[in-house]
Design goal:
The protein is an alpha+beta fold and 203 residues long. It is built from 3 helices and 10 strands, in the order ββββαβββββαβα. A hairpin with a 2-residue loop joins β7 and β8. The protein starts with 26 loop residues before the first strand and ends with a helix.
Length: 203
């Protein structure tokens, strides 16, 4: 039997086995770990590629967008260089928040996301940027090309979520939102993360 070229006999690892996308850094593939409906923090297991429970959300705050990562990216030295208040990259794939008008209520999906900006975050001294994108071909957001064009309230919710998602009732987490940036800077971060991945894991 002859299989299609893209056929996988085994499930591909979502970080290493999927492609970043042929139109990167303008449009990238995103593997979604969490939705706005999740009261539990899910995270891909680096060893197996399956989605695992990281922790229940520690506060009542939940992610206001789809949340996941860009395959074949790595936050290493090049990403850290674009985040001068950090001491190193966090060693994870590059996180991405995807805005969509139509609700997507399940994780472990792959989608194409059009990059419009990002949030520069430092977590425990490590660069932990969050790329902001809109669902590719979502007509509701079709005219948006930069993060400055989306409602401020939505960006504020993202800031609040990431500032509090590791907080506990008894204390604050060492998470700092340094600021946000537009589409061009976000694309630089994505390319840096791709180069960091190539250096860390090879082609």
């Amino acid at each position: 039997m002859t299989f299609p070229k893209t056929f996988y006999r085994w499930r591909p690892h979502p970080w290493h086995g999927l492609e970043v996308g042929s139109k990167s850094p303008d449009v990238v593939n995103a593997y979604i770990e969490m939705t706005p409906f999740d009261a539990v923090k899910y995270e891909v297991d680096k060893a197996t590629g399956y989605l695992r429970v990281d922790r229940p959300q520690l506060t009542s705050s939940m992610s206001p967008t789809l949340y996941g990562f860009v395959p074949r990216t790595y936050c290493g030295a090049r990403v850290q260089a674009l985040s001068p208040t950090s001491i190193q990259g966090d060693g994870d794939p590059l996180d991405i928040c995807v805005i969509t008008e139509r609700p997507i209520n399940r994780g472990e999906v792959i989608l194409r996301a059009r990059v419009i900006g990002g949030v520069q975050m430092v977590d425990g001294g490590e660069a932990d940027d969050k790329i902001i994108a809109v669902l590719h071909e979502d007509r509701f957001w079709g005219e948006v090309n930069d993060v400055e064009e989306i409602p401020v309230a939505l960006v504020d919710r993202l800031h609040h979520y990431f500032e509090t998602y590791k907080s506990t009732p008894s204390g604050e987490a060492d998470v700092k939102i340094i600021g946000r940036y537009g589409a061009e800077r976000a694309k630089q971060v994505i390319l840096a993360a791709q180069e960091d991945y190539e250096e860390e894991y090879g082609g």
